[in-house]
User: What shape does this take?
Amino acid sequence: MQIFQFTSAINFMRLKWLAVGLSALLMVASVVGFASRGINWGLDFTGGTVIELGFGQAADLADIRRTLSKAGFSDAVVQLFGTSRDVLVRIPLRDDMAQAAVGETVVSVLNTAAEQQITLRRAEFVGPSVGEELKQDGGMAMLVALLGILLYVAMRFEWRLSVGSVAALIHDVILTLGLFSWLQIEFDLTVLAAILALIGYSINDTIVVFDRIRESFRKLRDTAAADVINFAITSTLNRTVITSLTTVLVLIVLFYMGGALIHGFATALLFGIAVGTYSSVYVASSIAEILGISREDMLPPPPPPTEGEPGGAVL
Assistant: This one.
């Protein structure tokens, strides 16, 4: 299926310095966001109590929040969990009561104020030490993923392309984290999973472009590097657009119909896919071109000389 028909290559590399400057500016803004606002860590990382409640009728989330706020739980996060009668309440760590008693206290407060019976289905406590361990494990998972990708691309392609691909991945991760920092969207395990999925999605898109760049360098022998890269990106543009659009359509459905529990997951992937598509076209390819990628770098090494040839063994 061809969405676009091109009679000539689009000159993407004409804007490479503008794109690199924009990306650098956005990364600085993201780092400033980390320093000034931090990350709004969810209970998975900070610790707290997760309470699942069952209602006989459709739950009024606004009324539940008001009731809990009057009872001293103003920091409670209340959201639907599945149907309109299933409610999930997240309460950060409290020093004024035992964590084991938080679930029973919440149910008692809501039953007193509500006109229907509310049942406690489960109450789980996540300690702060567990949350800190999850932070470290999550950071290590991203670092290992980036290092593995760096080695893979360096072995399969060439070091300039390897540097470009990893720089694009770091760019995507930092910008996505910056979005969550500036908007103070809760960062939980589902968002961490989305970022790891984004790394895989983005590198897949970049590998497709790099494969075409390598093929194009071997076919277009007397063409400048920038023109070869433009041709390669243009020839993969249909595939990139189709892949991104189909993924975005699914994520939009998840965002609006999947419930509040996966809003962070869908938000991270929606933003990440847009940034990842941009970085595959501009950041990864632009850095490789700036570093001086050439046709000679893409050629396979010459075979060793055989006997009887110049440089070969003499009998």
In short: The CA atoms of residues 153 and 192 lie 24 Å apart.
